[in-house]
Amino acid sequence: MIGWGDVYKVVAAMAPLYFALGLGYGSVRWWRLFTTPDQCDAVNRLVAFFAVPFFGFDFASRVDPFSLSYRVLAADALSKLAVALSLAAFVSFFSGAGKGGLDWCITGFSLATLNNTLVVGVPLLDAMYGKWARDLIVQVSVVQTIVYFPLLLLAFEVRRARGGDKTAAVEDGGGEDERPAMWVLVRAVGMKVARNPNVYAGVLGVAWACVTNRWHIETPSIIEGSVLIMSKTGVGLSMFSMGLFMALQEKIIVCGAGPTVLGMALRFVAGPAATAAGAFALGLRGDLLRLAIIQAALPQSITTFVFAKEYGLHAEVLSTAVIFGTLASLPVLIVYYIVLGFIR
């Protein structure tokens, strides 16, 4: 059962996020340290191409690849596939071949499936179910880093190559009506994805984890220190960048009430429902089923905002989902925990 001490641990893990957010916000609004959107974009690019990859490598290198819970990971994969197909069908039905179809598929997938497994998930699930749950949520986080974030980046690059990113289209000299041939599109997307360190950082981390666990060797301190010095900046700079973005907007809730409610519904209702169906279909029962559902209701991944800002797609929706979703997540997750406790 969760006690007040456990609640404090979760709140203590959340509070630094808003401290970094406040510093970013104040740097623009009050202290005028950053005065132009280009300066704020530069900070976000630093996060996207340096801090986040090192953060992913660091945690991936600490997992034990030989003790993975494949049924839990398969249930998570099945639920994400179901969400992706449902979003594609929904958007196709209501918007036809309109340009916004892929855009909302990408954003909807981010909102429904990609969550903050480490900062909030680890202390919360450790308090709820113990060490085994903490180990499982780290495994889910690593798979998110090495599989689902690269797939998200691939979708962003496909959108950009098709002309969905107007800024990129102008920079490349192409008009809005031009559509590259399929091979040119595939080649352009492949080159972009191959150059993105987020794609292979997690894979390298898992590869190194295989080496260290198979032959029982320790990471040399000089390498570990070099990785940690960048890894530790990942979460803080991501929230700082979000604060910069918020300060440049006229309103705190930039996207309006409708998208905010939609984001909360996808995060706290649709995502857990899809995961429950996938977990049940693969035979998960008892605490494993409860864990799978609760981890799907964790707050929005901060990294999804960083990528959305970098690619210019619904960053306002993702920032709102992170900021207010994280605040709302603790009572929502406790309700899930209590309700699921009655299911046998």
UniProtKB/TrEMBL annotation:
Pfam families: Mem_trans (PF03547). It is a multi-pass membrane protein. Keywords: Auxin signaling pathway, Membrane, Transmembrane, Transmembrane helix, Transport. One of its GO terms (cellular component) is plasma membrane. Its main location: membrane. The chain crosses the membrane at residues 12-31, 43-60, 72-94, 101-124, 136-156, 260-282, 320-343. It is found in: Membrane. GO terms for molecular function: auxin efflux transmembrane transporter activity. One of its GO terms (biological process) is auxin-activated signaling pathway. InterPro entries: Auxin_Efflux_Carrier, Mem_transp_PIN-like. Belongs to the auxin efflux carrier (TC 2.A.69.1) family. This is Auxin efflux carrier component. It comes from Leersia perrieri.
